Amino acid sequence: MKFGKEFKKQKVPEWTEAYMDYNGLKRILREVMRYKQSLLHPALKHKRASQQKQITFMDSTAFSAQHLQSSNLNQSKTDVENQVIDVDTLQRDGSKKIYKTMFLGRSEDGRDVETMFFAKLDEQLNKVNTFYKDKVKALIHEATLLNKQMDALIALRIKVRKPHLNRSNFKIRRSLSNAALRMHPTNITSKGDKSSGKEHMGLTPEVHTIYDHKKDESTAEKELNSARTTGCSTDHGEQVRNHDYQQDPLKILDHVKINNTLDSPISTIRGVFKDSKEQDLSFNKEELRRVEEQLRHAFIEFYNKLRLLKHYSFMNLSAFSKITKKYEKITSRRAARSYMKIVDNSYLGNSDEVTSLLERAEGIFIKNFSNSNRRKGMESLRPKAKREKHSVTFLSGFFSGCSIALLVAIALRIDAGNLMNKEEGTQYMENIFPLYTLFAYAVLHMLMYAANIYFWRRYHVNYPFIFGFKRGTELGYREVFLLSTGLAVLASAGFLANLHLDMDSSTHGYKTASKMVPLSLVTFVLVITFCPFNIIYRSSRFFFIKRVFRCICAPLYPVTLPDFLLADQLTSQVQAFRSFELYICYYGLGEYSRRQNRCHRHEVYNTFYFIVAVIPYWLRFLQCIRRFYEDKDAMHGYNGLKYFLTIVAVIIRTAFELKKRIAWLVFALVSSAIAVTMNTYWDIVVDWGLLQRQSRNRLLRDKLLISRKSVYFAAMFLNIVLRLAWMQLVLGFRLHSLRKMTITTTMSCLEIIRRGIWSFFRLENEHLNNVGKYRAFKSVPLPFSYNENEDGDETEDDEDDDDDNNDKDD
């Protein structure tokens, strides 16, 4: 694979614009190549001269002036290679370095184009350096926060696991978590600055053994005493030892509280009655477990950030090396070595903070969260990449063929039995068909999801990050397609078995068994879904179950993007919910024994017929209320109003379906029209981000992943048409029952297709928002909250200072 394609493939999707513009530089080099070729062909000389007048080049005199003013100019270079270019380093804002290259080539041979190339190269180097330095500083700040969190965690472990320790007699040094991150902004160094040494890039190396809380007190004290005598050979190490002091390890717990993130039903209920976002420590094992889990998650995310940033540095350095070598090959000028010396001495190529932090973060995680088991720790930090299996592709094709064959067999069986022309057959289909449409809705939704995954991957939408999947466990479109075709085979085989057992005169003795086929299929699917064993993508099944549970408990859990996306999917499965209700009536009320669907004669069934249709929209409404309460954003309030209007429309439509009165028809049409108008506007403008007046793409948005704009206009048109079809369904309630069932099923399938199209553009818009903000990481809440009056970086243990701090706290 060529480097250009590999470079594009290996980019962090959210940082695409922060990478070196390799393709842009290649285009300039192609311009240089064409110019060189025109010099070799006299016939092209005149044409090249006319084209060159149309190109605006950067004024080379500006580089000459800059060259004369720079204090870093070295005029004693005599080597031919060093005379091709001269790179000046300028200082901005005190510390920010800006690189400017002056091309020293002869005036002929396309000097202007090559000058433009180096100007573009400098621009990209400055851009990459600035981005990389900003990200490193952000990670250094996060490292200091994690350091304080680890201090509190170690103290909490001592308090919970060793409650009998005497605080007055048990003293340890200030650095409780001797494996904690010691990264301060003042310690940022590079390879060129050896005064501080590597040890200040990450963890403080003064203590190399983590306090083992499982050992007895005497052994622990020996280890701590041994740790105190361990010192650093550097000057800074002497400074650190001079500031070492004795402190009660549990005293830190007097200045911390647990963040009340309202991430559980109990904490949410407490938060309603308590305004405080913090709560005192309870010092129990359950609290320690939750804190350890939160910090474990935070460390994994922090480590992944470091890995992505290191990969970013490596890929950009490789790109600079490749493009300068291409320049040498095309122009026969030796400038790659000179320029790469500048790149290697820049912050991007010279700093090693990320590498040092990676090594030390591994040590922390392995010691504190993996019981010193390196293999187990690295499996958590670096999960194995998922591999595509040939068996998945084979089984997907096999199940696809089987499902098509079974559907053809079902159609032939219905035609052979002439079921659609007999009253008895029509009644039978009215009873049996709704039971199997539940599977049809699920299969269609999974097929749309598989198609979306395929196109998300094709257009580099980072869907695993958006959905919050655990790395290495996300399903690809092949796996989802396999599950959908497998379910299709299962449902089709059950339907065909029902037809055979009920319609064949030789199988009248098996009618009781035939009645239980649909229930058996549903039971089998539910058992597989909730199966605790590691089979059939357990991680994905549990992720789905967890998200469904959070949707059901909508106001009691914080609403994340996967939660409301799933709730939006459920709003397109209203008929599936009603089919599930039919199962309960059919088997719970014994209607299957009568061979006639009389569920609507039960008042309880009709009541739940209203409730079931409203449940998905109600859950989404509660999510909007929760987000409005937390974020105080009016947009969430308007979104909740949209779902409330939809709930009103669904209730009125259901009432008209059951009552069949003209008044209800008018109310249903009016309410549905209002709901459709607001939902369509919200889909296109808010969720998709389209129809922007100031956009450079007319009636679209500034950034588009799909190059053909007609796709977006077609999607908007389809969305409007399918929304109107949902409204038109009101008029179909007066049709014959079988026709009405067919139309309802068709419209429900179209709604699922509309939701699938909506999902693609919704995630595309979310991805582009992440790209615009360079947001490639999840925000992980930390468990502990420190008092603002306490200075977390104190280096003195003075009783007067402690008293002052206590006074401030009071």
Describe it.
- By secondary structure, the chain is mostly helical.
- The protein folds into 2 domains: 3-129 and 307-346 and 361-381, no CATH class; 390-774, no CATH class.
- Helix content is 63%, strand content 4%.
- The protein has helices at residues 3-10, 22-40, 45-53, 60-69, 111-161, 217-228, 235-242, 265-273, 285-331, 336-345, 347-350, 353-369, 374-381, 390-416, 423-458, 463-467, 477-503, 511-515, 517-529, 538-552, 561-570, 574-588, 603-631, 634-659, 662-687, 710-728, 737-772, 799-809, and strands at residues 85-92, 96-103, 172-173, 246-247, 256-259, 278-279, 784-786.
- Strand 1 and strand 2 form a beta hairpin.
- Helix 5 runs antiparallel to helix 9 (285-331), helix 21 packs antiparallel against helix 23 and helix 23 (603-631) runs antiparallel to helix 24.
- The longest helix has 51 residues, at 111-161.
- It is globular, with a radius of gyration of 34 Å.
Q: Going across the major beta sheet, what is the strand order?
A: 6-5-7
Mean pLDDT: 78
Largest sheet: 3 strands, antiparallel
Task: Give me the Rg, rounded.
Answer: 34 Å
Structural class: mainly alpha
Low-confidence runs: 52-82, 169-246, 790-810
Domain count, please report it.
Answer: 2
**Count of strand segments:** 7
Keywords:
mainly alpha; 810 residues; single chain; two-stranded antiparallel sheet; 3-stranded antiparallel sheet; 63% helix
In short:
The chain has 810 residues and is mainly α.
